[in-house]
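In the previous chapter we treated chains in isolation. Here, by contrast, the input contains two separate entities that must be folded as one system, with a combined length of 921 residues.
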Amino acid sequence: MAEMRERRWLHPGAWWLWALGLAAGASRTTNPLVLLLLIAAAAVVVQARKPDAPWGRSFAMFVRLGVIVIVVRVLVQVVLGTPLGSTVLVELPGITLPGWLAGLRLGGDIAAESLLPAVYDGLRLATILICIGAANSLASPTRLLKSVPAALYELGVSVVVALTFTPQLVADVDRLQASRRLRGRATSGPRAIAGAAVPVLEGALERSITLAAAMDSRGYGRRGTTVARQRASSGLLLGGLVAAVIGTYGLLAADAPVVLGLPMLVVGVATAAAGAVLAGRNSVRTRYRPDPWRSPEWLVTGAGVAVALMLTAADWAGMDGLHTPVDPPTWPTLPLVGLLAALAAATPALTAPGLPPSAAPAPRTARDARPAAVAA
Amino acid sequence: MIVFDHVSLTYPGATTPVLSNIDLRIPEGELVLVVGRTGSGKSTLLRAINGLVPHFTGGTLTGRVVVGGRDTATHAPRDLADLVGVVPQDPMSGFVTDTVEDELAYGMECLGLAPAVMRRRVEETLDLLGLAEIRDRALATLSGGQRQRVAIGAVLTAHPRVLVLDEPTSALDPGAAEEVLAALQRLVHDLGVTVVMAEHRLERVVQYADQVIVVPGDGQPLHVGLPVDIMRHAPIAPPVVELGRLAGWQPLPLSVRDARRAAGPLRDLLVGRTPALRAVVDSPRPLAQASEVTVSYGSRTALRGITTGIGEGEIVALMGRNGAGKSTLLHALVGIGPRARGSVTVGGHDPRSLDGRSLLHQVGLVPQEPGDLLEATSVADECRAADRDAACDAGTTRALLALMAPEIEDGTHPRDLSEGQRLLLALCVILAARPPLLLLDEPTRGLDYPTKSRLARVLADLADAGHAVLLATHDVELVAEVADRVMIIADGEIVADGPTLDVVTSSPMFAPQVSKILSPQAWLTVDQVAAALAPPGPLPEGVAG
């Protein structure tokens, strides 16, 4: 158990697998109680284990995005949906569209039977988004990059460089606005924005060139092997990934030919893996202190997998309560499997190791986290 | 170790070469200082050592540059990464990762070293540069000196035999500069690393150099020699050397310690004399007043209840560590940024309540990056825009600029000006509205000596004309030369405020070299000593240097 009390970064891959497990589980249900419990579980874990870093604060943004998704989904239903059901909630004037637009309608009465599926559907999508948001704020993008296969490394570097450039661009814009005030000019309005755009872009370009020079002189891009082998590995990797995407589509789309489903996915993943291994052998790069994968990583990943398995199995078995009836509308009930899944989803708040002191947020949160660590 | 063999370099589109027919041999284990005016080709010379010039920048290089047996013509910069470490001028711009430890490891990862070796070297480097305390910290949260040391450590882990640094101390406060120079000393003495360093702040580094290379610019041949020989005839030299030349000390001292040992007779000669100070009005008419100003950014408090004032005709220097709150105070005085408590008045108004143009007529700030103020595509356009902003007669700004920097041409793009020229242009743009209060944030960063003394003259003239000047700076020698009053700020509070002579001579960190050499007597500049020694009458030009 000493291993679990050690304060360290959890492997970012574990956080992503956990979050994807939650998202997969959420996609199997429309019960709002289960979905809200899953969101709550994700929020508890984020609150307990998020680091004090710019990306650590992205969870709230994803929650807001989720709310927007629900609102948009409901609005689309209200404005363009097919009239259904008799439990009228609001009466609105409607427009009858010409015959060639049959099937569409604008406005009209809103019934609970047509509104509820939209709410549930939007909530499900929002839950999936929020799970992704949780992974985003828990897993450091740079640490994730360190675990990326060597073949994708250079792509990853550009992503991380872009991530660190964005806050600098914001700082540049602030500085240039202050400078406009120093010259006695307007600090808002189209002219101010146009005036600031050129220097901001010039600054960003200059910084990129300096960074490129610095990376070059520190040995970035040193090659160990021939160009031909590099091409072979990149080709395998790209081809494999494309095949995997087609396979995933085949698996999800109901009317796709069977061969486009699981077989394509397996072939694609295998090809990509071969490419990654080959590229890994080609690269001269080594890794400094890669994040270890120990029991906390297994526990966190296991929690995500458990959520996905429980809800998928219950869905396949046709268990009651995962899909709340909407016609006629009834109050949702909480099935036992939903409660268990949400509890499993929240366990990383205890099983994941605490962050190292330098990354832990405010002292207050650190104090909150201590009883949890003792309990673990 | 480093051999330049008949090297000439011409950038694409240029008609004259930046470097022409250079022959240079730098032996192993030396600390070599490269000096020269801004734009003379110093940086080009440094970047040619690891092949960034011409591999990365373009241009035509003739002759051969060979480092440790590898020719840069056949080796790209990345193939020299294990041999030459290059620290860029702004360390933050060269960081690839986001924490100290990862940054130290990055270069080794690129070279493909074994994990065990990487681990050991990171620990060694953390100890060598005193970075162990901050190993987990995010790079963005480090102070200037720490960043510079991390940047040095990041190239050092690859065990290069040559280290190239471009102005490593120019943006640092005196304390942080000492830290960095001490670390470099250790590398040269203990590890035998060859260090090639460009630096304008001669007073900080010349005593450590084994060899000095003067790059005169315009493709003229280099002067290479021992620091003592080069300094004896150099037109620009640090105060310790100028004092030595004035007093006729042999051998010429380069460090404060050597100068102090030779200074006994001079101190005796100066007993009973006092430095001539710039005539200052005893109680100047107050112009700007800050009372109980508190500024916070999020949870960090940058200024804690600052109360101070500035009067007409005063030149006040604001000193303190990087991040002590100097820029924040300047911003508060022009009404930019948050202000949690307190009040600021400039000429009787709160600067935040003034609209753009009336603000311009009360207070002007030249920010740390003077280029931020410039938006036009040519000097002439910029001047016309400044006349319009300030609603003054057409040609006012251009006339000011012609006075301060007559060599700047109308058609030049502001980005193509040298650092010093850009500063003077920004200064003229601000001065067009003749603001009674002028604020400058780190005006001498990256300025060479001639530009710096030109700036000092401009500031003194402005003060004589009744302007109040407040400048935030790390440059103790500039402060000694121009400031009437010094404010030292630490952790958001004013810890010292008084006449320059009283404040800086009592501080070990902010004392100028002349004051350190002649203490306990209170002298600030070589000019003051020369004037006190000279018979009454105008000071001969040559002595002032």
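The first helix of chain A runs from residue 2 to 5. Confidence is low (pLDDT under 50) at residues 363-376 of chain A. Compare these points with the single-chain example from earlier in the chapter.
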